[in-house]
């Protein structure tokens, strides 16, 4: 593996987040020689997804004090010529702050946990009571990191046994079978006759609560794919368009978000967002149903009826809704869950547009306007990286760039020097914001994103199916704070272990993540306790584990805010706070057009199935076999 | 999908150190040739070959690493919906054998646990330069519960056998699966693929 990097490229890209990865694919696709590096050992930067143990390692890395260029064999100053100057890059990522971890489940030691690549149990020493103190972040650093288990198991179907009863899966969506899950369909049958198999719970009104321990979470840790940034794909959004157009979609699979929820009068309710939903809703009265239908019908072609909203055009959408004979709860639905706007900021015209957009996004893939990528958001940037590699791009994780080398005379950057002291030449350089030094960013004003990641035992709105993917917007309570977006993922999204839910909370920061989000967490969940004390709390899902952190939001920073960057160095931002990925796609496309004005942005690659293979034993491919569903078996 | 002229479709993924002959194995099998010189085939994501096994058409979609293994930077998504993995090393290169545990760790982490893994020792035409004995490899593969085969992409030794045996095994696994589940279980693509086709089906 002592393979050294080639040293001549057209484009060097530093950082593997979504915008950089889209750009990498676009550049490589248009014939540029691309080198794509990341200083981390994983893809995605702040767009990454981690297994549970991976997330713990990530947290630990952030808490370590910067080890100053330990690995650099040759320091850059020795490698810079007289005619050049260097712009140093940051040694340590500083985009994550205020991390706080809470573990509510018991950390019993009887289970012999053995997870490959995992930090072992007793990682953190949190009390398993309801009285949880924030884990002092220094705690994690002190923890002993046990040796990796170096025994390799054959990934055979029966290595792990389903150790819980299987709950009934009454499901109205087609593909909720968890094929890959150990506790999934196949193993389920295998264990049917097992003695320890408890009877199947058939009373859905009183869902059985499983006792889940920390060691179980660790053991099943690879079932988790925990997104650092929680996003969804609009079914008619730019990212879906790009994925389809570029054929990158073949590397990923998606599920529909199944429900849009709302928090109204202290209760979580489902928002009826399609005509069918409105009809079938049990929460709505006949009168409400009629009002909502009428309003939806109007919204789908509101431009045709200017007289109906002209007077309100620039006034708040919330005021306008009051005039539309909608009950307060319906107004709330439309404002927060459908238009997804916050009370004060949205004008009527924008609200109508958003509502229309929402209605148009419905029904393309399912009942809500959103899709979620299986295995998490982190897959998406990797898919673009694969496309880049397929067209010859070279990939190198764990490669740190010490500095950009600028030619004094031309003022252009002509190379980078990596941590091994290797000089790599290129014509253009794309660098993600978090790699730029404090000096370069000294006049930049960053926003922050507040994030929480929760592992829970039940859905915030229980129904027949335990495999729902839900989005809930909780409006701000106090002025000056922001609406909180809650995304609840079930295990069939391949992001959490069976019998748990992975819940992401996201908002623009006004304080630390915990300060911003804890009140919403408390409204929706109750801490896990072995014995139920409070009957009233019984119906709420229980919190097994929680993490809070703040992430820097470098979106929307104008290029001129960065000091002293040569004109052929382009900057990509980290994740923004919005639901969709439009910002990343727009940024990638804008930069691509700036660098290569005459090139097409991510055109469709030739279909591998159309590449007719030479040789005598070839089987002619039948035309019309495009758009094959990946790896589908048709018995 | 009903128009497709095959009975089964499987995704097979190759992994192993750079230079062990993965690309050559794929091209030998799908194109029947041993490419002169090195260099990946730019723009080719995967190769397809349809084979007939006991009267059934089996379409094999064979994915190569796109060179990302060179600096240990394979994307996890590469493993995601593979039905089978071909883990390759070079019998004339001890190092490529010693790296196998690392590859197995990746498989364990990212591949489905129903994936079938085959260990392949390639370049047996260079027997005089062998560094890894057959016995060592057999012991290793047994311990890991993998199938094992030695091949030469150059001389076309065992290459057909490798893929055809794998196809047979995949068919019987898939059969077992559908029997047990009593539903037509798509394997392993549990999600939706998005394409224009899907879009047009709605509304
Ligand atoms: C069905 C539906 C589809 C939507 N589709 C998209 C979409 O494809 N892309 C999207 O970004 N937002 C879309 N929105 C709007 C989006 O949900 C919210 O406006 C946005 O998430 C508000 O977040 P914010 O207040 O945190 O961000 P803001 O600070 O209000 O905006 C964040 C960024 O998003 C951009 N943006 C906001 N609204 C839109 C929009 N409608 N279209 C394009 N860009 C917008 C802005 O330019 C801004 O840079 C859609 C809304 C609905 C209901
Ligand atoms: N002698 C011999 N050389 C081989 C064989 N297979 C591949 N090679 C050579 O090994 C080198 C690397 O092969 P390649 O398929 O590119 O390896 P990859 O990096 O694993 O895809 C090339 O020079 C091939 O010609 C083989 O079976 N026998
Ligand atoms: Mg190759």
Structure write-up:
The complex is a heterodimer of chains A (635) and B (203). Chain A is an alpha/beta fold and 635 residues long. Chain A contains 14 helices and 23 strands. In chain A, strands 5, 9, 10, 17, 18, 19, 20, 21 and 22 form a 9-stranded mixed beta sheet that branches. In chain A, strands 12-2-1-16-23 form a 5-stranded parallel beta sheet, covered by helices on one side. In chain A, strand 1 (11-14), helix 1 (18-29) and strand 2 form a beta-alpha-beta unit. Chain B is an alpha/beta fold and 203 residues long. Chain B has one domain (6-174): P-loop containing nucleotide triphosphate hydrolases (Rossmann fold, 3-Layer(aba) Sandwich). Chain B has helices at 22-31, 94-98, 100-110, 134-143, 159-181, 196-201, and strands at 8-15, 46-53, 56-63, 84-90, 116-122, 147-150. The radius of gyration of chain B is 17 Å and the shape is globular. The interface between A and B is large, with 87 and 85 residues. The site of magnesium ion has 5 residues of chain B, from helix 1.
Describe this structure in a few short sentences.
By secondary structure, chain A is of the alpha/beta class. Chain A has helices at 18-29, 52-63, 137-142, 185-191, 214-219, 238-246, 275-280, 286-300, 317-322, 328-338, 348-361, 378-390, 513-524, 582-595, and strands at 11-14, 34-37, 49-50, 84-88, 96-103, 226-227, 233-234, 254-256, 259-264, 267-270, 370-373, 394-396, 401-407, 413-418, 423-425, 428-432, 447-456, 470-474, 484-489, 501-508, 526-527, 542-553, 569-572.
SSE inventory with pairings:
The complex is a heterodimer of chains A (635) and B (203).
Chain A: E1 11-14, H1 18-29, E2 34-37, E3 49-50, H2 52-63, E4 84-88, E5 96-103, H3 137-142, H4 185-191, H5 214-219, E6 226-227, E7 233-234, H6 238-246, E8 254-256, E9 259-264, E10 267-270, H7 275-280, H8 286-300, H9 317-322, H10 328-338, H11 348-361, E11 370-373, H12 378-390, E12 394-396, E13 401-407, E14 413-418, E15 423-425, E16 428-432, E17 447-456, E18 470-474, E19 484-489, E20 501-508, H13 513-524, E21 526-527, E22 542-553, E23 569-572, H14 582-595
Parallel strand pairs in A: 1-2, 1-16, 2-12, 9-18, 16-23, 21-22
Antiparallel strand pairs in A: 3-6, 4-13, 5-22, 7-11, 8-11, 9-10, 13-14, 14-15, 17-20, 17-22, 18-19, 19-20
Chain B: E1 8-15, H1 22-31, E2 46-53, E3 56-63, E4 84-90, H2 94-98, H3 100-110, E5 116-122, H4 134-143, E6 147-150, H5 159-181, H6 196-201
Parallel strand pairs in B: 1-3, 1-4, 4-5, 5-6
Antiparallel strand pairs in B: 2-3
Bound molecules: flavin-adenine dinucleotide, guanosine-5'-diphosphate and magnesium ion.
């Amino acid at each position: 593996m002592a393979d050294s990097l080639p040293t001549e490229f057209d484009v060097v890209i530093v950082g593997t987040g979504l915008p950089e990865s889209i750009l990498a694919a676009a550049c490589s696709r248009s014939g540029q020689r691309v080198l794509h590096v990341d200083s981390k050992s994983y893809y995605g930067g702040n767009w990454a997804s981690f297994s549970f143990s991976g997330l713990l390692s990530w947290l630990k890395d952030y808490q370590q004090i910067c080890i100053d260029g330990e690995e650099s064999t040759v320091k850059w100053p020795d490698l810079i010529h007289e005619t050049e100057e260097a712009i140093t890059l940051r040694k340590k990522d500083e985009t994550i702050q205020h991390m706080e971890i809470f573990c509510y489940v018991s950390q019993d030691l009887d289970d012999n946990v053995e997870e490959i690549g995992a930090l072992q149990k007793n990682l953190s020493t949190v009390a398993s009571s309801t009285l949880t103190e924030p884990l002092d972040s220094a705690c994690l650093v002190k923890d002993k990191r046990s040796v990796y288990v170096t025994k390799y198991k054959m990934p055979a179907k029966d290595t792990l046994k389903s150790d819980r009863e299987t709950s009934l899966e009454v499901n109205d969506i087609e593909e909720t079978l968890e094929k890959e899950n150990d506790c999934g369909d196949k193993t389920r049958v295998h264990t049917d006759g097992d003695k320890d198999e408890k009877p199947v719970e058939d009373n859905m009104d009183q869902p059985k609560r499983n006792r889940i321990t920390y060691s179980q979470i660790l053991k099943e840790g690879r079932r988790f794919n925990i997104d650092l940034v929680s996003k969804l794909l609009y079914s008619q959004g730019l990212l879906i368009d790009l994925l389809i157009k570029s054929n990158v979609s073949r590397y990923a699979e998606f599920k529909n978000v199944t429900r849009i929820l709302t928090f109204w009068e202290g209760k979580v309710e489902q928002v009826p967002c399609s005509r069918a939903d409105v009809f079938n809703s049990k929460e709505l009265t006949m009168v409400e149903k009629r009002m909502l239908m009428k309003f939806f019908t109007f919204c789908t072609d509101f431009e045709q009826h200017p007289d109906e909203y002209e007077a309100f055009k620039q006034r708040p959408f919330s005021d306008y809704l009051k005039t539309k004979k909608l009950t307060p709860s319906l107004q709330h639905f439309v404002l927060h869950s459908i238009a997804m706007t916050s009370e004060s900021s949205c004008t009527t015209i924008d609200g109508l547009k958003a509502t229309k957009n929402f209605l148009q996004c419905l029904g393309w893939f399912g009942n809500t306007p959103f899709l979620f990528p299986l295995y998490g958001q982190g897959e998406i940037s990797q898919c673009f990286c694969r496309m880049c590699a397929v067209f010859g791009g070279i990939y190198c994780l764990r490669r740190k760039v010490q500095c950009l080398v600028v030619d004094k005379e031309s003022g252009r950057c002509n190379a980078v020097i990596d941590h091994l002291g290797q000089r790599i030449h290129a014509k253009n350089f794309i660098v993600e914001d978090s790699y730029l030094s404090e000096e370069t960013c000294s006049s930049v004003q960053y926003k922050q994103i507040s994030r929480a990641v929760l592992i829970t035992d039940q859905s915030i709105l229980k129904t027949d199916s335990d495999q729902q993917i839900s989005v809930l917007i909780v409006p701000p309570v106090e002025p000056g704070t922001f609406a909180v977006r809650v995304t609840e993922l079930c295990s069939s999204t391949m992001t959490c272990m069976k019998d748990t839910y992975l819940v992401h909370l996201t908002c623009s920061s006004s304080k630390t993540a915990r300060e911003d989000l804890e009140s919403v967490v408390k409204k929706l969940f109750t801490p896990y306790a072995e014995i139920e004390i409070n009957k009233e709390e019984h119906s709420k899902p229980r919190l097994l584990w929680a993490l809070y952190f703040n992430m820097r939001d470098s979106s929307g920073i104008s290029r001129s805010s960065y000091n002293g960057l040569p004109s052929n160095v382009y900057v990509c931002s980290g994740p923004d706070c919005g639901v969709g990925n439009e910002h990343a796609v727009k940024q990638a496309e804008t930069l691509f057009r700036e660098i290569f004005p005459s090139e097409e942005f991510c055109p469709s690659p030739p279909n591998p199935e159309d590449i007719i293979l030479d040789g005598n034993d070839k089987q002619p491919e039948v035309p019309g076999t495009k758009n094959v569903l990946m790896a589908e078996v048709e018995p | 999908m009903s128009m497709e002229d095959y009975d089964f479709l499987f995704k097979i993924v190759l992994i192993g150190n750079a230079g062990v002959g993965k690309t050559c194995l794929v091209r030998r099998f799908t194109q029947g040739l041993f490419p002169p010189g090195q260099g990946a085939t730019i723009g080719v994501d995967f190769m397809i070959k349809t084979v007939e096994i006991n009267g059934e058409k089996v379409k094999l979609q064979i994915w190569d690493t796109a060179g990302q293994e060179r600096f240990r930077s394979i994307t996890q998504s590469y493993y995601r919906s593979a039905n089978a993995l071909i883990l390759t090393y070079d019998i004339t290169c001890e190092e490529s054998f010693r790296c196998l545990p690392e590859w197995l760790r990746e498989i364990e982490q990212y591949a489905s646990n129903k994936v079938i893994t085959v260990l392949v020792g390639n370049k047996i035409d260079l027997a005089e330069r062998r560094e890894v004995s057959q016995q060592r490899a057999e012991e290793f593969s047994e311990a890991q519960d993998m199938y094992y085969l030695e091949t030469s992409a150059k001389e076309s030794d065992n290459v057909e056998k490798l893929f055809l045996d794998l196809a047979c095994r995949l068919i019987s696994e898939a059969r077992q699966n559908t029997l047990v589940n009593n539903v037509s279980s798509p394997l392993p693509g549990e999600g939706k693929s998005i394409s224009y086709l899907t879009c047009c089906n709605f509304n």
